[in-house]
Design goal:
Elements lengths: L4 E2 L9 E2 L7 H4 L6 H48 L6 E8 L2 E7 L4 E7 L2 E6 H56 L1
Antiparallel strand pairs: 1-2, 3-4, 5-6
């Protein structure tokens, strides 16, 4: 097996070993005693692919939930920015997942954004727009990277499954031949 790996674009990249398709099983296996070790190694790699795939899928799902939240914040910024100066904006806003409140908002000069870890920062409208657009762009890029990584992992898992099947079938074939002799 090749030790080439795929580099993940994200900062917390996990080196993923590339599965190499076994073209000719007879060339790879010179003795029947080698087969259990090869099958065990392939099974270990397959479990690794599935484990990494589950982790990447969870990160992808979290990112898919984050994008609408950023878009919602940008939409609210646009609404507040377009508000007429002499009229207050009456709105219904989310306090938590199931709690909403009514508010009357005068023309604000600043907005507060949750930046994570329970931290709320005050920004001017332009800075908030810039930050949210940057975050939205980054989120889309990370989502695309995660999707690409998932596709790669699925390919590697399938290649490994095919290799395992071919080795197992070769093992069965060798046993049958030895029984006939």
């Amino acid at each position: 097996m090749s030790e080439e790996t795929k580099a993940d674009v994200s900062s917390d990249a996990i080196p993923i070993p590339r599965a190499e398709f076994i073209e000719d099983v007879e060339k790879v296996v010179s003795d029947i005693t080698e087969l259990p070790g090869l099958l065990q190694k392939l099974d270990s790699n397959h479990r690794l692919y599935k484990q990494i795939e589950a982790d990447v899928a969870a990160r992808r799902d979290a990112m898919q939930m984050k994008i609408p939240q950023i878009q919602k914040a940008l939409a609210m910024l646009d609404l507040l920015d377009q508000q007429e100066k002499d009229k207050p904006l009456d709105t219904h806003f989310e306090i938590s997942d199931t709690v909403y409140a009514n508010a009357s908002v005068e023309k604000p000069e600043h907005v507060c954004l949750w930046i994570g870890a329970g931290v709320l920062l005050q920004y001017k409208f332009e800075e908030a727009h810039e930050l949210l657009r940057k975050n939205l762009k980054t989120a889309h890029e990370k989502l695309a990277s995660l999707e690409e990584t998932l596709d790669f992992l699925k390919e590697q898992a399938i290649t490994t499954e095919v290799n395992m099947s071919r080795l197992y079938n070769y093992q069965v074939q060798l046993r049958r031949q030895s029984q006939l002799r």
